[in-house]
Structure prediction request, 495 residues.
Amino acid sequence: MNMNTQTHKPTPAAGATLLVRGYEVVIGFETHAQLSTQSKIFSRAATAFGAEPNTQACAVDLALPGTLPVMNRGAVQRAIEFGLAIGAHIAPRSIFARKNYFYPDLPKGYQISQFEIPVVQGGAVEFYLGDEKKSVRLVRAHLEEDAGKSLHEDFVGQTGIDLNRAGTPLLEIVTEPDMRSSAEAVAYAKELHKIVTWIGICDGNMQEGSFRCDANVSVRKPGAALGTRREIKNLNSFRFMQQAIDYEVRWQIEQIEDGHAIQQATVLFNPDTGETRAMRSKEDAADYRYFPDPDLPPLVIAPAWVDQVRAGMTELPRVMAQRFVSQYGLSDYDATALTQSRSTATYFEAAAQACGQPKLAGNWITGELARRLNAADLSIEQAPVSAAQLGALITRIQDGTVSNNAARQVFDALWSGEGTQVDALIEAKGLRQLNDSSALEGIVDTVIAANAKNVAEYRAGNAKALNALVGQIMKGSAGKANPQQVNELLKAKLG
Ligand code: ADP
Ligand code: MG
Prediction:
């Protein structure tokens, strides 16, 4: 888990244009999200990752003669869920088309996709970039099948073809060219990733290629028409995404400044050199000779199905964040951090319920817990301290049993598995705060008597001299005194 993903850089005032060397950056995204169905989009073959090459492609996936594709209902349901999550129109009738091209990993010679009428139309992804609210409009999201994979690594001087991935269901999600910086593009991609994993339509595993982004990038002088774009293919980490876009923007500006026109192209990012390199000149739609697939009828989605899917959907992250603000009085920032993932939100609500202190619970989760999870590279599901334990600990801070400092020691002990019961740990480690005022008074009197100089300074108007006395008293109580109580007692005694 990473709670610190929100960038808190200063953002320009609304309406101001963010410029790089006098150029405005324009970015549009095409994202392939692999849908989390057990079987392929048009066949019953399994979609599991990592199987022996060519053990999971069946005759339908390869379009062998005599086979017919049959639409996977689960894939359509996931497309509907996505459309509802981003406020899109669900087309009551959409069409599958053949996109024709030759590539070794596509022996059938065409990919089944959607072209003119996609299943999901419009909608928007909303997120925060620093304190600024952004909305990126979506053009469409369409269903399609994935191709196989060319394996270059394991074969010297040869390429192997693994067709296991052929026919795996994808949702291709296309934005308008609405983004204006690499930071905004990454924030969009993270939000989109959060949405698809939150609603469970995609496992989001970027290393395994379940969530792949293509970034279309162009630059222009402010107010000019859109520049020619280059498309950076298959960005499968947020870090590479930012590096690749930044490099591409610099490269395009240099080209233009040197008097060269940008040629539309498809480029690849090389993480080793940090550079983008042209792979091929970009094809146009006409090159693919799209036509409706004669093997598949139109995809008809009845309104009743959409209603049924809507009724079964979980609360979405932004809706949940707004609820955390109104129900628990959290700040927008904390509410966003606590809805970073579903498991974080679940943990938070359980801890808040256990102690009745949502704000304190939120602070502990975004602070102490997040820090430790990051350091140990653990997800919140793997947290050694449960929400119930954290709730119990916060209860003991709130009722004055332990100080914040002592609570951190108890947290440590829970984390390292020294114990599981908060109260038992407080007793075993002698961390109970000294709330007995007669015992405390004794220490206060002793310290006042022994520090005449500080006392005189305080009485002469130096408020800071009190700190030295508080420090002595805390030490005298072996850290068990309640600092607030000590302050009050001291002030009362010194007049
Ligand atoms: P194609 O049909 O070649 O795929 P699209 O019009 O569908 O092209 O656009 C593909 C992606 O490129 C979309 O995400 C769109 O927002 C983005 N895009 C289009 N024009 C530009 C541009 N000039 N600069 C940056 N991105 C662009
Ligand atoms: Mg496209």
User: Anything to note?
Assistant: Residues 1-14 have pLDDT under 50 and may be disordered. The radius of gyration is 30 Å. Residues 28-300 form one domain. The chain has three domains: 28-300, 315-428, 437-494.
